[in-house]
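Bit of a strange request maybe. I'm writing a small parser for structure token strings and I need a real example to test against, not something I typed by hand. Could someone generate the tokens for this chain?
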Amino acid sequence: MGRRKINLSRVFTGELVGLHEVDDPIWLVSFLDFDLGFFDQDEGRGEPAQNPFGPEKVLKMSPE
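Reply from user aminoacidic:
Good idea to test on real output. This should exercise your parser:
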């Protein structure tokens, strides 16, 4: 991708975000140990990855 600038979010200002090519032209976007989503280089847009903290990982509260 060279030196192309991609705006993800102001949250990541000044932080290192990883890009790993998983397919031509699809890139996996990561921050620390978390996969944030996928960036399509041709379309110039991203799609979020599955939420690692989604409902299937959260324990249900016991009924009162």
